[in-house]
Fold each of these.
Amino acid sequence: MNAASLILKIIAGVFAALIITVIAIITLVDPNDYRDEITNAVKQQTGRDFSVANMSLSIFPKLSIDLEQAKLSNAEGFSETAFVEVDKVQVGAALLPLLSSSLQVDTLTLQGLRINLQKNKEGKTNWDDLIAAKDDEKVSPSDEQKGDPLSALAQLNIGGINIEDGYLLWDDRQTLQKIELTGLSLNTGAITLGEYFTINIAVTSKIQQPRIDNQLSASIEAMLGKNGEYGLRNLQLENRMSGKDFIIQQLTLKAALPEFSLKEDALSIAKATLDYDISLDNTMPITQSSGALTMGPVNGNLKTQQFKIEKLNLQSNLNGEKLDKAPLNLSAQAAIDMQKQTAKIGELKLQAMQVNGTGEIKIAQLTSEPTVHADVNLAETNLRTLLTQLGISLPTMQNKNSLTRFASQMTLDYSTKPQSVKLTKLQVKLDDSTLNGQLSVANFAKPDINFKLGLDKIIVDAYLAPKTKQEKQTPTADPNAKIELPTEMLRSLSIAGELNVKQLQYDKIKATDVVLVTAAKNGLITAKPIRAQAFNTQINASSQLDVRTNTPKYQITTNTANLPIGEVLIAVADTDKLSGKGSVNANLTTSGDSINDFKKALNGSLDLDLKDGAVKGFNLAQSIRNAKAKISGQPAPATNEVQQTDFSSLIGKFTIKNGVVNTEQLSALAPFMRIEGSGTINIPPQTLNYLVKTKIVGSDKGQGGEALQDLNGLTIPVKLNGDLTSPKIALDLNSILEQKTKQQIEQKKEEVVKDLEKQLKENLFKGFKF
């Protein structure tokens, strides 16, 4: 609308300059002899150079003027191309009717009209100086009282206006956009005050970015009243557009306003119709659509700038690879108040494919910095079917009924300056889950995201691919493969959010009251705290990702008591190597771009304090019994015991430096053993080197302790080394033999001493009688 007003103003300015020239010529006998006076007058009025190659004037029987090669120079600082130029101007008026205040003008003809509009990199246009000069003119009170100049005429008759081969260029160096209007033609019928006349317009336009070619033809009937009133009716418009490297490939529009009326300031449209046919890029799910937009009645007032559309209805068909004439119906009411800069679209109803929606939209600050307030309600629909119709392929999911029920409602507020969007009263229902809360995004170039969302329940597995037996046979990913993070995007994020989930299920993990508080700023992303009720205890953790430098850094901490470690390992890692319940505290950091990098850069600490559990995979008691049998030269005793080492208490304190786990403390209490361990675990190669010292204590219970009573008091060294998942276990038999020999020697010493004491007593006092 602003562009059309600008073009009309420029054309009016051109006509005004021509009229000034005509008046000047009429007052001169030979216009060519006074070319300098004419150019000086234009220079004084506009500050621009004006030139004309040839001027001819005839007086009788009609006053007529012909101009050839007229030019108005461009503003200073812009290209040397003329601002406005025209190859030929022809106009004439009958003299005798002027005596009776009647103006009868022949057809005004402009051939080769060329208008050159430019904006430089600083945003200044080549017509700013003309507007400034216009604003500086002071209107005298007497001028204000003169009224419309048409009112001084008893009659106005113009044979018509004929513009041939017109051209307009819009060259915006600030946005690097260029628009060309070529082949502009405008012709009218005879123009008489108070009577309707026809205007026909045709033009071809070319836009460079993106490349769009457009052909427009239109006709309308217009009326100029003696007292300044005007009217328009019977608009017919046809527009054909084609694009290259643009989402719209072709667009055809046909508009009809058969009962269009514009008299004085009153606008009235009984009914308007816009037929369209659009073809889109083949990459789009909708490749073609055709339909009709009807509206009316439409009433408005140009003076108060208030307009109202009682009914607006769009009916169309959508076609695509998986769409065949899918119906789309939209209806609404609209009201616009340009003085208040507001617009309202109410009673909005949408029916399209699987979607049924209602809403209301309010827009403020229409022409300055628009803001939008919208209430939107989408009824329940089958999201899976809708996405399929739109050509979006969905992976196979564990629950075939997932994504079949979707509904949403929200209040949306959008602002252009500062750029932001805010969703409040948000409610999204997906299958059996309901999400509530609010979300806002500001500064789209560098997003600032805030949210507070609550989810009642979700089964994550329902949306994941089905599990197959082949998954266990799938080779692991390359540990050296680089993990590509969207670093620049992460650095640009600014996030402050909170997510609460009442019930969550993922694989074997069932959690309630999940709380996740997250923040991001300049590449530092944190999740703190992370809380959840799971495994009959409260999980407390936090994590951090730092991409402020070229190497990403990670941190994770956890502080959890009464954790059933066996259930956790089965649920998370699908392994059953350790059981027991107790506290697990960890503070770990790492960095890098691959799994191997993470292993090598792992640092931190890990503390365990477990009760009543077992280390699974080997039975220490059985290994000791086998060693005892070997020492005694006996076969290993038959057993069907479970391959695990029970403990009543297990305490471990570990420090990790550059991927190597060092044991600060490792102690365990078993029913007949006291265990102390020391050594290291090298994470990158997955190897360990451990020495476990097991002291046999007096006990006849638990894991065959009664069979080891004769080893009571001995400390048995057990060496574990090699692969972490299947280490080599070796008992130090020599150490057992040495300890057992010493123990037997000590026992023999005691027996000899006791026997000697007995003999001494008997023999020493044998000859004495008391």
Amino acid sequence: MARLANSAKKTVHLRVSGMSCGHCEGRVVKALHAVPGVTSATASAANQRASIDHNGAVAAADLIGAIELAGFGAEQAGGADAPTDADADPEPQPRPESRADPPAVVVAPPAFTATLAMVVGSAANAATSADYRLRIHGMTCAACVRAVEQALLAVSDVQTASVSLVLEQARVVGPRSIAVADLVAAVASAGYSAAPVGPSVAQYHSSAPHNSSAVSAGLVEQTESTSPVAAGWCLAVGVATMVASLPLMQHAHHADPLEQALMAIAEPVRSVLPQLWQVDAAVLRWTLFALCTSVVLLPARQFFVAALHSVRRQTTDMNTLVALGVGAAWIMCLVGTITPQTFDSQGLGAQVWYDAVPWVPGFVLLGRWLEGRARAMTRQGLDALLRLQPRLATLVQPDRDVQVAVQQLQVGDRIRVASGAQVPTDGVIEHGSSAVDESMMTGESLPIARSVGDRVLGGTAVVDGSLVVLVTKVGAETALAAIIAGIEGALLAKPKLQRIADRVAAAFTPFVLGFALLAAAIWLIAAADHSWGAALVVAVSVVIVACPCAMGLAVPTAVMVATGSAARRGLLIRNGVVLERAGQVSAVVFDKTGTLTSGHPQVTNQQWWGADSVAGWLAVRALCSVSTHPLARALASHLAKNAADEPLPVTVAAHATAGRGVAAQVDGVGWRMGAWPWIAAQAALDLQTESVRSAIVTAQASPGSLVFVAADQAIVGYFQLQDSPRLSAAPTIAALHARGITTWLASGDRAANVHPLATEFGVQHAKGDLLPEDKVAIVQGLRAQGHVVAVVGDGVNDGPALASADVAVAIGDGSAVAAGQADIVLLRPDLTAVVDAIDLAQATDRILRQNLAWALGYNVLAMPLAAGALYPWTHSLPSPMLASVAMALSSVCVVGNSLRLRTWRRVDFG
């Protein structure tokens, strides 16, 4: 009892700057819960505030420091550090406008629709900061990504900048005073082009996802129309130079297998083209040089321009390596054309350089084109979502229906959706009924029956019948926009492996240049003869064979495919970093109500000892309106059946205490509703009759959740509710155990209800009668034991536990707090998706490590081979042309390996 009424409890209110969405709220709450002594914390992006309850021994400076370490600004709201009595009636608060409305005559929506609406609830309400998106063109490797990020971070007031090579996007967070033109100019100064996708997430999505899709399609079309032409010209010139240089070939001291093969076919070609051997050698050389120069001036020009930009900003990248290789080969062509004996004396045929000039950029451009097509395939999951929203909607007007652009729809409009058409935006059905295909949004394979009062989501398809839908969400507030924003956010957030790859890529090009010079120096010193000719070959081959592109694509392509695959299966992964942690989960903590149970409890028994039951029930309904707990919602729905037309009384000083109950003044009477320990600590039991006490004891001995009601210190009644277990709970628990994962059930419900349910499902550890801080203690205890902990919850009481977990999972019918703090949101109420998330994360982690191992291993092996490491056994050096082929294939292999995640299939575990 003493714990429930801790008089030393204090509350601090802080102003927090920089929060722009529910995930930001979760980061702030998680940081605050890490401060010793904090018992509960909440954060709101809408009003940029955080409220913290602590044990009285926490300094405000510690709280502010924790928030700042999480990447946000914080300061005290005036006088906030004054202690507050945990059980005293709170100060009067303005009544939410939505509570003044009559009870909605809407059938309770399916679980996932509520969660999706809540996921985006705070994303469009950032008060002081903005989320800017730019489309970046010209990036080819991780070094390019780093250069763009550094340029954006150099802009005044920019707080964070993250760039995705796969999305070809940059996300910048900062105050609304930042000019988009300054961001575009900063990118241009780094040598890349940029265009604003929208100054904020809200404006980006309110302009319809088609805009992003169109841009993406345009980039793919541009890649397909330019790279093949440029690569084709290079390769055509390469074939021409290869054939035209045959008469010039002679036995070269360092001939590689390719040259030896060409010399072997020289005679057959001569029998077909004898005229070629009659052309003067000098004329052939100048003709070959002219062809090579056309490559340098036309298709390969882009490499030199990009390399020049890199030099100006004192950085290096992939283009630097290609430009150096092609430029060196062209200079050797010029030398070989003017003084061919220079190379002959070194046992090195001049045709080596004539071949290198066209073949190197040709294979690089061909590789980029193939890589671009493969990257486009990794975006197919996202592009499929972008295509879900139709461009037009049928607006219902009093006299006729008209076709309007989806962007023109407003909340309150009525739209007609015909059979076979897609729903343009989120809304509530007013007329008609139909089966609705929600598979692309939730992963539910079978169409779901929807009728009047049900919510429908934009992007879903009407299978049969016709619907009239009242628009409730548009633009960035829709579920489709939330999913797209979540996937893009996952790609723009960088996992640990990506950060490692970026650091390696940042130093990669200087290392390659140093290695090439070292290899050349070794050949100059060690070679007895033909030394400088061999040094030239190995230096150019090393520069060409090195490939930073593979490292830049190793992580983001895998994350892109994984998040798209997850979305198709009803999993919204809101943070790419969580893919690393989810695969390492060793303990899962479940909530009970709304998680292992359906979240739709029904009243099975009630007792009322108050004088006026109607007035009392109205007061209870008013109290229920203050809470978002599933029991409160169920109780409000039950009581509304008896007095649906009666207006709710006004609540004064309403306050919900997480895990305990609700208190408010109603018509001058102090009402309390909640769990027995909290009610018993406040109500005078000695005033109750023996029959009342006997009824309470009997109720506590029976199964079900109990909600007690007290008025002015006297217990006036209770309600007993029972919830049905989720059918997916038992197979989910069994599947987790099969994977060696420990399971916990942590609930605020009575232990008498918790333990039988845990036994039924096979949960290994169970505890009931828990407060929110008790759940946090369990999570922190497991983490202290070395576990990577996932918390699966749905309600406000789960918020602190979700914030303290390594992986936070919100179930499909979760509250705004749960969804806002979740790393993973289940778009449909199927617990087996928790196992899917872990399995997919493990598969993604394997692909990530394979990609990085290939990217690093390729360069570790290819560079020494290009430097002539096998010369003692082969007596030949790899040609620059072969080096370009290997380099082009390396990045294509990485992207191809990532695409394997598209075929990932869940394990059938019952």
